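Review form for a predicted model. The reviewer records the input and the model, then writes brief findings.
Reviewer: anonymous (R2)
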Amino acid sequence: MSDAFDRAVEAVVFASPEPLTVEAIRAHAGEGDVRGALARLVTRYRGRGIELVERGGRWHFQTAADLAHLLRRGRDEIRKLSRAGIETLAIIAYHEPVTRAEIEAIRGVQTARGTLDVLMEAGWVRPAGRREVPGRPLTFATTPEFLSHFGLNSRRDLPGIDDLRAAGLLDPVDLAFDQLAVENLGEED
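Model under review:
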């Protein structure tokens, strides 16, 4: 029974145009041990040209990471996000749900409407409701597509400050300000 059920789960995930939750897979494949079938399929596809992965609680097939470069040759180069887009996406990912005013307060500059539009068109950011304060501002959060695109299982997998510093991704000016703050705290003692 498990081989036939594993094949049904495999077919459902393979044919789906988007990643599926365990519940969605069960709705198509029928009652059975979906998680067990997924675990067996992960093992079966390990080391092959495609692999079965879970990102943000959703399952899909993807090209093996070491072969992804083969598929990039024929594709048009995608525009890179602007610095404002990257900063805005990072703020949303680390602070969600967050309002435009909160994004602007963290960045220290006004955020253009187009910046959020680009992130929503990419499928990485979505409106997440309204804050229950005067004016009821709209909040923003990341999507499962964001997790999938960046290879994250959940937001808990986002790098911490020490990881970013070790990778050299923090601006040297920011590091100088951090060092100054530490030195000033030491003088106050």
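Findings: The beta strands are 50-55, 58-63, 98-99, 125-130, 138-142.
Further findings: The chain has two domains: 2-70, 83-158.
Recommendation: see findings above.
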